[in-house]
Amino acid sequence: MNFERDEKDDLRSEYDLQSLRVRKLGPGRKSFGATVRLEPDVAEIFPNAEAVNEALRFLIRITQEN
């Protein structure tokens, strides 16, 4: 392969990237929360995650009051 060298590249040439392994799973992988898949009919009502969270917080609040 013929690659042009980018002079703005901060990566040093002595780094060996051939043995680089990316962690797909395990404790080193950061998660940003649970992923929940909505059924299509529910997804039509809630346009985004904020709307879902607002509805769930409302449901939690009214169930705790009763």
Specify the oligomeric state.
Answer: single chain
- Individual helix count: 2
Query: What's the total number of strands?
Result: 0
* Cα-atom radius of gyration: 23 Å
Give a short account of the largest sheet: none
Look at the structure and give the mean pLDDT: 80
Distance between the termini: 68 Å
Helix vs. strand class: mainly alpha
SSE layout and pairing:
Blueprint: H1 40-45, H2 49-65
Keywords:
2 helices, mainly alpha, 66 residues, 35% helix
What does this 3D model show about the protein?
The chain is mainly alpha-helical and 66 residues long. The protein has a domain at 34-65. The chain is built from 2 helices and no strands. It has helices at residues 40-45, 49-65. The longest helix has 17 residues, at 49-65. The protein starts with 39 loop residues before the first helix and ends with a helix.
Structure, briefly:
The chain is 35% helix and 0% strand. By secondary structure, it is mainly α.
